[in-house]
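User: Hi! I have a protein structure encoded as tokens and I'd like to know what sequence might fold into it. I'm fairly new to this, so please keep things simple.
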């Protein structure tokens, strides 16, 4: 494994960091999350058309850059530093890889170039709060999380005219503004029970077309920088993703889930690194008893511990991104667990070391604390990620426990 970054990879980081320092400070973030889209469309246009972020890991044949998950993780690390709200995670990390892996050639040719250019955004809709289960991060995704033939979830029914969807999906990332929905639905009843993915054209398609019966409600979430929506489907016309109903959807979701975890880990590391930097700057200025609090040994020890945790999480995130790109092994879940834990602890310490100002809306520390708490609710908890990784590796198999 070559642990050094190429000149191109370093350029991605440098260019993106310079742009975000100019255009995505704390006040810009707060303004963006209060908008109808939940992000700054002008900044998204720059990220898409000038830097090519949505198509960074897509093949050049579909208008992409042809890079790997590693480059996408490095870009997400920089976005995490500023908590920049954008549809990149939902579109390029969740939606586009599923289209690439399962879509028919016609579907890929029609949709992926529009995603690469930033014209079209996408969102993955899974029933209830089953996102991490669907991605195989906290449990086996071959179960009945999509509905299982019972009431609830999302059900798909085949008719003479195609497929129709019924049901509800919660916690859909950027689902209120996405131009394309990828919906996981249960079909086949009990006899041929299976989960398939469907494409639903949303009412926000730029050509004015869309699917009747889709209701989308933006939810109030703990972390405003990570927009979520509730999607209700009432006899909605849908298109099967791909040509083969026997495709291994669960396997593809698990594979995509590993790369999603690696990218999220890098994003969390970026956030943890930034909030640690801001805390170090603050303790050098804040004085008690006539001296900067950063000069006290107890504060130095706390910051040193945080630094070690952030660097360890960064190493794990980089390794997970490399392993995903090379197909060596699936360690995204473990890297995500370590990164989420590092962000939670670093953000909590930041609030404490900033004193009273750290608890106020005017200060950015609370934004990082809410990102840490919100991400663990969405993609964790940490102990579940580690438990599933241990089960998958048969760490405690055979009735024996390592001492």
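Assistant: Happy to help. Inverse folding works backwards from shape to sequence: for each of the 403 positions I chose a residue that suits the local structure. Here it is:
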């Amino acid at each position: 494994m070559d642990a050094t970054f190429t000149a191109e990879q370093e350029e991605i980081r440098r260019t993106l960091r310079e742009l975000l320092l100019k255009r995505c400070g704390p006040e810009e973030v707060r303004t963006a999350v209060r908008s109808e889209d939940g992000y700054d469309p002008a900044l998204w246009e720059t990220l898409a058309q000038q830097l090519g972020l949505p198509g960074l890991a897509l093949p050049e044949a579909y208008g992409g850059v042809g890079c790997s998950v590693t480059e996408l993780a490095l870009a997400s690390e920089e976005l995490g530093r500023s908590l920049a709200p954008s549809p990149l995670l939902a579109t390029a990390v969740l939606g586009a890889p599923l289209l690439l892996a399962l879509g028919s050639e016609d579907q890929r040719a029609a949709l992926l170039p529009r995603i690469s250019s930033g014209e079209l955004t996408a969102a993955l809709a899974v029933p209830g709060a089953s996102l991490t289960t669907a991605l195989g991060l906290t449990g086996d995704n071959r179960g009945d999380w999509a509905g299982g033939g019972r009431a609830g979830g999302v059900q798909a029914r085949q008719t003479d005219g195609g497929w129709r969807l019924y049901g509800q999906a919660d916690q859909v990332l950027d689902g209120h503004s996405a131009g394309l929905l990828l919906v996981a639905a249960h079909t086949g009843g009990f006899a041929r029970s299976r989960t398939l993915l469907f494409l639903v054209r949303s009412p926000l398609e730029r050509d004015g077309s869309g699917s009747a019966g889709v209701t989308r409600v933006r939810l109030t979430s703990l972390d405003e920088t990570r927009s979520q929506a509730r999607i209700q489907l009432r006899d909605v016309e849908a298109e099967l993703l791909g040509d083969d109903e026997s495709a291994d959807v669960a396997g593809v979701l698990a594979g995509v889930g590993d790369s999603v975890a690696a990218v999220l880990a890098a994003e969390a590391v970026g956030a943890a690194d930034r909030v640690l930097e801001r805390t170090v700057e603050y303790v050098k200025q804040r004085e008690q008893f006539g001296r900067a609090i950063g000069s006290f040994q107890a504060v130095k020890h706390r910051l040193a511990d945080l630094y070690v945790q952030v660097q360890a999480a960064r190493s794990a995130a980089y390794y997970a991104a490399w392993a995903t790109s090379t197909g060596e092994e699936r360690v995204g879940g473990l890297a995500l667990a370590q990164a989420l834990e590092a962000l939670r602890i670093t953000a909590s310490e930041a609030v404490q070391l900033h004193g009273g100002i750290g608890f106020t809306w005017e200060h950015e520390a609370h934004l990082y604390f809410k990102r840490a708490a919100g991400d663990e609710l969405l993609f964790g908890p940490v102990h579940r990620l580690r438990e599933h990784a241990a089960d998958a590796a048969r760490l405690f198999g055979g009735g024996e426990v390592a001492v």
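A useful reference point when you look it over: The two ends are 31 Å apart (CA to CA). Feel free to ask if any position seems puzzling.
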